[in-house]
Amino acid sequence: MDEAGHARPAQSVVESARMKARFQRKSDHIDLCADDGAVYRSHNGLFDQFHFIHNALPQLAMDDIDLTTTLLDARLNAPIMVTGMTGGPERAGRINQGIAAVCEKLGLAFGVGSQRLLTQHPDAADTFRLRSVAPNLTIFGNIGVNQARDLGAKRVLQLKTMIEADYMAIHLNPAMELVQPGADSDSDFRAGYETIAALVDALDGQLIVKECGCGLGPDEAARLESIGVRAVDVSGSGGTSWVKVEALRGEGLQAALGETFAEWGIPTLAATTLVARRTSLQIIASGGIDDGLKAAKALAMGARVAGTARPVLQAFLENGEEGAHMFLETLIAGVRMTLALNGVRTVDELRRRPKVIGPDLATWLQHTPHIPAER
């Protein structure tokens, strides 16, 4: 009511419409990732441009192979992470909790989708909370760098605490923002490095910086390292095109731009290698990793951990926790088999094995220095 006692429905109606749109967007993302309609078509992350040299006499037993690793300060049973996808609608909560429970059993890391929605709708926090089903899981919260800038470091820390996350992922998605329909899109990309530097201090370094399917380049990665960032998710092109996802949701100018830039980005294997050769950052390589061989290729080129999202979602939507478990177990087994067929016991040894690089990947890498032997 206003001072005269008259009803003021307009603001509540507008906010209700915005809330409905935000939840619908999250639901749309799940639907559009349920099939392969928004996957890159021009390349698959350049994984086909990399080949191992088969070792027919490996001289090891499978029990000799050790896949354990650390990501930031967390110990993982295998170098695999399910990267941030969703949260908000009730079914998003079921997806998060189901896949998180699987990751807990397998000793992997897990990331929730963007918590931006919680800044306006904190009652949706239960769809991001996972400790009831995965008390020991390594969990990454998630907020965009632009939103972190506007919220301030203290509020970002609160978002981390709200869902009992171990770390925060600060995501970068300028291409996605520029084609995203609706009032929540953001075209102001200033003060990104300053924002992340403040977060490094406020969160005591307990964060990663991640792209969203267009790839993180070596220059940006080097500057992030210089301000105290320890780990990044390069999230290269080759898997889900989030630009295309938003194009499929939009119309008019945004849809047209989304179609134009749907294949934009640095291919995953190129981004992984370029960042590894330029920095000492811990690297999560994601973008098109849907089997153990691709994961092993990323690890061999400098990644600490291989990340996957849409394929796990699809497996979960098709067959629940059992489907997600089978997919991730098979992916891990594929990494293990790749090591065996190279005759090595650890990922560090895999990085020193000879490799065959195709011309397209070589073009991306020709002006970069040698990759470090260990990460």
Structure description:
With 375 residues, the chain is α/β, with parallel strands linked by helices. The chain has a single domain, classed as TIM Barrel. 44% of the residues lie in helices and 13% in strands. It is built from 14 helices and twelve strands. It has an eight-stranded parallel beta barrel with strand order 4-5-6-7-8-9-10-11, surrounded by eight helices. Strand 8, helix 7 and strand 9 (231-233) form a beta-alpha-beta unit. Helix 3 (145-151) packs across helix 6 (192-202) and helix 11 (292-300) crosses helix 12 (310-342). The longest helix has 33 residues, at 310-342. The chain starts with 8 loop residues before the first helix and ends in a 10-residue tail after the last helix. The mean pLDDT is 92.
